[in-house]
Amino acid sequence: MMVRPRGGDFLYSDTEFRQMLEEVRFARECGADGVVFGVLTPDGRVDVQRTAALVAEAGPMQTTFHRAFDMACDLEEALEATVAAGCRRILTSGGRNTAVEGIDTLRALVAQAAGRIELMAGSGVNPSNVRQLAATGVDALTHAIESCVSRKATKLTIDFSLRAAGRLARFLPVAFASPDDAEARRECLLGSLEAGIAFTNSSVALVHGMARPLGAKFGIPHGVSNAVLLEAIMGFSLPGAPERYARLAEAMGAVPAGTPLETARAGLGIVSRLVRELHIPRLRDLLSREALDAQLDAMVREAVASGSPANNPRPASPEEIASLYGEAF
């Protein structure tokens, strides 16, 4: 139940605040599951005292601090204030007009929250852009996979990669099917953060090296570029690091098979199903074969020159890179 005595700003008089308390009490007595509210101070900070009073009045109900949070002057400070007030979750777009625009801030806030409060990405999440968010999720999964099998991976980065892969494989389909599922979206943000920590310390590999020319030549968003290439390149790369791919497969829910390579292939099957379930396009849905062929030689050169393919567990020759573009098409 939304508790807001009027439209406009989130600075309320004593009379308006008493009305909010009464509405929260009414919702609790009627058996509502939760209430949503937001109160700021004149200097643009979360009103901890009043928010805590509303939380106390809510009793066993779930409490969500709404997008008044995005109007705060300092989001990091606002998060700590909301935690201190006892709220269960925060609805936020990361201080931007939409959750898509604020995705980087959302990731940072999830990291700061460290499980103390749920963050629910809000505003602009709808059927028209949920596929873009799905591609962004597969991009994060690509970060997790490539950082795990990269030649520069360490025990620390592998641990982060495995946690991220497991979280994203489990919750991406849920968030895609039910964009309002706060837990699923929070877990996806956390998985994206974990994958980001991993790849910034171990680098990425062939998928990213081949994705960059797609953006440069055809304007395909980076997340989509990675998503359309992941399945083909992962299949190519499995023999180069079967043990690590097997660990990824188990993290994503695969049952261990007879050999690491067999388990790794089960992980590829999970990724393939995920790509289909999230409606990730094929490359042919984004450009023509003629356009691809016209740029293919230059794309191969640029992919190799990026340096990322050198981190791949299975080396790829220029001819193999060209062939993988064709397979993704």
N- to C-terminal distance: 48 Å
Number of helices: 13
**How many strands, which pairing sense, and closed or not: the largest β-sheet?**
4 strands, parallel
Structural class: mainly alpha
Secondary-structure element string: HEHEHEHEHHHHHHHHH
Mean pLDDT: 88
Low-confidence stretches: none
Rg from Cα: 23 Å
Tell me roughly what share of residues is in helical segments: 55-70%
Strand order of the largest sheet: 1-2-3-4
Q: Strand share of the residues?
A: under 5%
The tally of beta strands, per DSSP, is 4
Global geometry? elongated
Structure description:
By secondary structure, this protein is mainly alpha-helical. Helix content is 60%, strand content 5%. It has 13 helices and four strands. Strands 1-2-3-4 form a four-stranded parallel sheet. Strand 3 (89-92), helix 4 (103-113) and strand 4 (118-121) form a beta-alpha-beta unit. The longest helix is centred in the middle third of the chain and has 23 residues, at 155-177. The radius of gyration is 23 Å and the shape is elongated. The mean pLDDT is 88.
